[in-house]
Amino acid sequence: MDTRDSAAQRGSTSSTIRLHSHQTLTISLPRNTRLVATDGAVQLSFVDPALDWLGEAAPINRLRLNEGDSYVVEQSCYATVSGASTGVAAIHIEQIAVPSVLKRVRAWITHRAMPDRTSATPQKAR
Could you tell me which of 28, 42, 47, 46 has the C-alpha nearest to residue 82? Predict the structure, then answer.
């Protein structure tokens, strides 16, 4: 049974990745990406982007998502996903779409920032 919000799925992109035990995958996760462990347990490791200035001294965050658990990425980051269970594990990655109001505001700002080409040309005197 699919328990995800259908309204959030309309404009979103999603994929499901299957991992065998101890198989790892490094991926780039954009902001507001939701990760849902669908089969088995999954280990998620990432560095907090706010601590990037520490370089290699930055602590690594490790989360174990059991089947049915979810996690929302607050800031864009690179993450390592690995199968933590003995069998095959699967994780569903859903990138939540930008709300339509925000899209309209961005379009309005872009339109206002661009000068109108017709008014930029000099008018001929009559």
Answer: 42
In the chain, domain spans: 6-116
How many CB atoms are located within 10 Å of the residue 19 CB? 21
Least-confidence region, from 27-41, 70-84, 105-119: 105-119
Residue 28: what residue type? S
Q: What is the CATH number of domain 6-116?
A: 2.60.120.10
Q: Give the model confidence (pLDDT) of 63-72 as tens digits.
A: 999 999 999 9
Residue 124's pLDDT band (boundaries 50, 70, 90)? Answer: low
Q: What is the pLDDT of residue 122?
A: 58
**DSSP string across 14-44:** EEEEEE-BT-EEEEEE-TTEEEEEEES-EEE
